[in-house]
Specification:
With 599 residues, this protein is α/β, with parallel strands linked by helices. The protein has a domain of 88 residues. It has 22 helices and 13 strands. The strands form two sheets. It has an eleven-stranded mixed β-sheet, sandwiched between helices. It has a two-stranded antiparallel sheet with strand order 10-11. Helix 7 crosses helix 22, helix 8 crosses helix 16 and helix 9 packs across helix 11. The chain is elongated and about 115 Å long. It holds the Pfam family TraG-D_C. InterPro entries: P-loop_NTPase, T4SS-coupling_protein, TraG-D_C. It is a multi-pass membrane protein. Keywords: Cell membrane, Membrane, Transmembrane, Transmembrane helix.
Length: 599
């Protein structure tokens, strides 16, 4: 659109007209309030009768309309109070508009143009998410009021506003957040503290992490189970879990072997001959041990002596003749091939040679057994801890997490299709300590069962390394909620996010001056709402939220230590961290003493 030179003359008329409208917008309400104030004063002090509507006279000459009224009181009633009321109305209107549009109201940062407004993500806000919770959870259907934590998992506030954004208890989520970008303090810990049902957490840290921050609080809700085969928290062994409980079928044994395979090699290497063969041998031996109710450590004895016919006899006794034939064929095959396959299987299960690790997966006198089927109907919490690159130890962690989610699925089917209350599964550091091979496939139905997984990764490529390109793409596509924090340094992924956020129209104004006068032109152009470099530079404390069927939203994250009750939680966390340190020192003391004696 182009304005002619004469348009500059019209600009003056436009300014004058707007000024007139502004003056009227102030004078008319002020004079009307003055008339009301004067009549109210006259009525309250018996200083005259009701005066018909005369706003101009009330504002300019109130003493003529109410001559009997006190001069000071009349000045207050017709000038000061209307001015104060008008200012309050203007400020109130501005505050309401800013909150409605998401541009203020106590938020930390101004909303980015083109990102989702309140109306764009209405299904994730309080009213809609509460209504959805009533429909999903029969226990809440007739409740008069519902606590916010029972409606969904807090993700943060819509940027620049007080509107809480929550994912519902049928959503499944992937969070990609770099270290120290708030993935634990702003996502994992608040979700655990607000969970209405059982909670599963995998992690590679204990002190100063979600474990210490939530251990005491969850202990007040239900029983806390901690599986710590590599002594990250240096906790006493107060549980054991039988990984062979679900291996009494060929499928179950294959899944268990798959966890040992995934913990040892990346997705790109799992398809070669040796990997497949080693995994097959493990699954056959796991099946035999489970059928004969043996401890998993017996598998290591069979791997050490391929000629041992015990697993063959067990499989035949339980009518698994085809599996027995396959195992016999491998044992009696060429020695170099057999030895290579068995050595591969030994490497995958090598962590079971460590008696400290194996003790968590074998019966222990006086130590209670953790049973997934009972856990999913409780309000208990399960902490699964393993170091990065934990090999077989991380295989046990992944197998236990998988067993819990499968038990939850079975329970949901028995309960009519969905768990109530839902179960929260926070798979923190999933690419390091919880490599469930078919997790992307599980994402397609877990949410509909009331099982809410949140897989937390440090980068998109980290997920590709574990599940492959197709697997990670499948998980990304199946996730109904995606949270992207600061620290995204992958240019391809940042550009992908930028394209998903989209473009918006930007008004460009240009002015030119010539002999005939000044002309102004206005044009529209498309511009990325958030270019890749801006995504890379996301400040800490913010995150992008992609929810199915909605515009991308920018969130202000809410760390747990700024929420109500943080003081008590901090004290409990500090006490737990101190206890971990004390246990670590106590364990180290004998070793140092032995070293001194030897010296």
């Amino acid at each position: 659109m182009t304005n002619s030179p004469s348009s500059s003359g019209n600009d003056g008329y436009d300014i004058a007209f707007k000024a007139l409208l502004g003056a009227m917008a102030v004078i008319i309400p002020a004079s009307s309030l003055a008339w009301l104030g004067g009549n109210a004063l006259a009525w309250a002090t018996d200083a005259g009768d009701w005066v018909p509507y005369q706003p101009a006279a009330a504002l300019l000459h109130p003493d003529q309309l109410w001559p009997a009224a006190d001069e000071t009181a009349l000045l207050i009633a017709t000038r000061m109070l209307p001015a104060i009321a008008l200012i309050a109305l203007v400020l109130g209107g501005l505050t309401w508009w800013r909150r409605r549009s998401g541009a203020g109201g106590g938020g930390k940062r101004k909303r980015i143009a083109g990102m989702a407004k309140r109306s764009d993500i209405e299904p994730l806000l309080a009213k809609a998410i509460t209504a959805k919770a009533r429909s999903l959870r029969p226990s809440l259907k007739h409740a008069k009021s519902i606590d916010a934590k029972d409606t969904g998992i807090l993700l943060g506030n819509l940027q620049g506003s007080r509107h809480e954004v929550r994912m519902g208890y049928e959503d499944v989520a992937v969070a990609i957040m770099a270290p120290r970008s708030g993935k634990t303090t702003c996502l994992a810990i608040p979700a655990i503290l607000g969970a209405p049902g059982p909670v599963l957490l995998t992690s590679n840290k204990a002190a100063g992490d979600a474990y210490t921050a939530t251990l005491d609080a969850r202990g007040q809700v239900g029983r806390v189970w901690s599986m710590d085969p590599q002594q990250i928290a240096h906790a006493e062994r107060t549980m054991w879990w039988n990984p062979l409980a679900d291996a009494r079928t060929l499928d179950g044994a294959g899944r268990l072997a798959g966890h040992f395979l995934a913990a040892s090699v990346d997705a790109s290497q799992q398809g070669d001959f040796w990997s497949k063969a080693g995994s097959n041998i493990l699954s056959q031996l796991f099946l035999a041990a489970a059928l004969d109710e043996r401890p998993i450590t017996d598998v290591m004895q069979w791997l050490a002596f391929p000629a041992d016919r015990t697993p063959l006899d067990i499989l035949r006794d339980h009518k698994f003749t085809a599996v027995a034939s396959q195992l016999k064929g491998t044992v009696e095959g060429p020695p170099e091939t057999r030895d290579g396959i068995y050595e591969t299987a030994r490497q995958y299960a090598a962590a079971l040679l460590n008696s400290e690790i194996a003790a968590w997966a074998t019966p222990q006198k006086g130590v209670p057994e953790f049973r997934p089927a009972e856990f999913v109907t409780s309000l208990d919490t399960l902490f699964l801890l393993s170091k990065d690159g934990g090999g077989g130890a991380s295989a046990l962690i992944a197998a236990c997490a998988d067993s819990v989610m499968r038990a939850a699925t079975a329970q949901a089917e028995r309960a009519g299709g969905r768990l109530d209350p839902p179960m929260l599964a926070i798979l923190d550091e999933a690419a390091n300590v919880c490599k469930i091979s078919d997790l992307p496939d599980l994402y397609s139905h877990l949410g509909s069962r009331g099982i809410i997984p949140i897989t937390i990764l440090q980068s998109y490529r980290q997920g590709q390394k574990v599940w492959g390109d197709a697997g990670m793409d499948a998980m990304w596509s199946a996730s109904t909620v995606k949270v992207i924090g600061s620290g995204i340094d992958d240019p391809d992924f940042a550009d992908k996010l930028s394209r998903l956020i989209g473009d918006h129209d930007v008004e460009t104004k240009s002015t030119s001056v010539s002999d005939s006068g000044k002309s102004t032109s206005i044009s529209m152009r498309q511009e990325r709402i958030l270019p890749a470099d801006a995504i890379r530079a996301l400040p800490k404390g913010t995150a992008l939220c992609f929810a199915t069927g909605m515009r991308a939203a920018m969130l202000d994250l809410r760390p747990w230590y700024l929420e109500p009750g943080a003081k008590e939680l901090s004290a409990a966390s500090a006490a737990t961290s101190k206890a971990i340190t004390a246990r670590a020192v106590a364990k180290a003391a004998p070793r140092q003493s032995d070293f001194g004696t030897a010296a």
